[in-house]
TrEMBL record:
Transmembrane segments: none annotated. Residues 132-172 form the 2,3,4,5-tetrahydropyridine-2,6-dicarboxylate N-succinyltransferase middle domain. It comes from the Bacteria. This is 2,3,4,5-tetrahydropyridine-2,6-dicarboxylate N-succinyltransferase. The lineage of its organism: Bacteria, Pseudomonadati, Pseudomonadota, Gammaproteobacteria, Pseudomonadales. It comes from Thiopseudomonas alkaliphila. InterPro entries: THDPS_M, THDPS_M_sf, Trimer_LpxA-like_sf.
Amino acid sequence: MSQSLFSLGFGVGSKNLKGDWLETFYPQPLLNPDPAIVQAVKQVLGYNGGNTIIPFNWDKASELAHLLKHIAPQQSALLVRLAESHRPTVATLLEHDDAPQTVPGAYLKLHLISHRLLKSQQTNLEGLFDLLPNVAWTNLGAVDLNEVAALQLEERIKGRLLDVFSVDQLPKMTDYVVPLDVHIADSARVRLGAYLGSHTRVLHDGCIEANMGVDEQSWVEGSVLNQQLLAMTGEHCSIGAHAHVSIILGDRNHVESGLHIEASTLINLLDAEQNLIRTVKAESLANTHDLSFRRNAQTGAIECLALATPKPL
């Protein structure tokens, strides 16, 4: 068995009453972990290769923490805390970057992106939404939809209220990852698996979905969504309120408020004197720097003006 892994994470999560995973939290996910860590996991948890999840109890967590104390002190400290858990704990090992086959495996990949160990589009998430269950996200954590009514009654009897924040397949990112150098006005509008570069500002109308992202020092008032292309913005971009972008923007791009730009959207390219050069599909402008997208107030056509000489990435 190779000691080389794509990713490894020790996590704690939620299951429904049938024992099915609903979600998993990885405080310290690893990309391409040290082979010595993999060897320790093999020794304690019996890992035999491949992409797999291995549940573990407090004694296994303690044993593994002891082995990793000098090899990986942070992972050792995490395992000491996980040994105290009353919730299900799991080791998720991904030898290959294949499409996720388990809920813990999918959540590990989403954590890698939001922890900035990978950028959006850099890992295989094919079939993600066919795999993940629809979940009630509440003040008591993730709850299976079939179990919500009973829990609501239980809480009412105890004089409390079950607050259901949303019903969705993915939670908000900030319940799992909170970057130290970003501003998010409404955390419910940024999903786990979003990539936020340093010094990004997501305003009240901003929205970033899983496997989407913005690079450093971007300003997001609109939406970075997945249509035909996976969206990613470059550095120093500004996306106006209620705008929706589904192409990969280069650096220093500006998108006017209210614009919807998909891969097939027709864009009128203008020269410095604002004369029409030609009409192209938006996808042909992906990865191009210093562009300003706007709508012509008279014709309604979407136009693109170069703010400087465009430089492809």
